[in-house]
């Protein structure tokens, strides 16, 4: 039986447990390079808070929602698609952000099914989001705001 530390991903059996979740990061970097602006400085407290927030989001989506979907007996592909779609919808009504998040979550949901480690996925989520926040908002993305805050 796996320990809590191993399920979180704080200890991993394979290097790929840490490497695979990072695949969306070069995609975020390429989008930022292609259509972004100079990177803006992000406060260290903001970065740490976002890492924690990414861990909470991934726990809720992957461990809770996807875990329950898996128990329904749906095919793995359907579980991954529904999970990613729900994660994208959480970023409503910011259309560009919804699409980026759904695509990234497709990969992270597959990675989590392959190796259920939350912390590497949360770090990859935070790194990708912080890179996009630092260099892409205001161009391809209007903002990272969601819900009613998007309209303000």
Structural description of this entry:
The chain is mainly α. It is 66% helix and 0% strand. The chain is built from 7 helices and no strands. It has helices at residues 4-8, 16-19, 24-35, 44-71, 76-89, 95-114, 118-135. α3 (24-35) runs parallel beside α7 and α5 runs antiparallel to α6 (95-114). The radius of gyration is 15 Å and the shape is globular. The mean pLDDT is 85.
User: What fraction strand?
Assistant: under 5%
Task: Give the integer mean of the pLDDT values.
Answer: 85
Q: What's the SSE pattern?
A: HHHHHHH
* Number of extended strands: 0
Distance between the termini: 48 Å
User: Quick one: overall form?
Assistant: globular
Unreliable parts: none
Helix percentage: 55-70%
- Radius of gyration using CA atoms only: 15 Å
Largest sheet: none
Enumerate how many helices there are, as a single number: 7
The helix/strand class is mainly alpha
């Amino acid at each position: 039986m796996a320990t809590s530390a191993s399920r979180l991903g704080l200890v991993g059996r394979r290097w790929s447990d840490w490497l695979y979740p990072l695949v969306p990061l070069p995609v975020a970097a390429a989008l930022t390079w292609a259509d972004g602006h100079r990177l803006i400085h992000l406060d260290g407290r903001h970065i740490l808070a976002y890492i924690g927030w990414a861990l909470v989001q991934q726990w809720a989506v992957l461990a809770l929602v996807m875990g329950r979907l898996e128990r329904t007996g749906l095919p793995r592909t359907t579980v991954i698609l529904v999970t990613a779609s729900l994660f994208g919808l959480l970023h409503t009504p910011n259309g560009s952000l919804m699409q980026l998040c759904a695509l990234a979550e497709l990969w992270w949901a597959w990675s989590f099914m392959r190796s259920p480690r939350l912390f590497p996925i949360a770090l990859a989520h935070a790194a990708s989001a912080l890179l996009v926040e630092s260099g892409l908002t205001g161009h391809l993305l209007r903002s990272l705001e969601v819900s009613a805050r998007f309209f303000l």
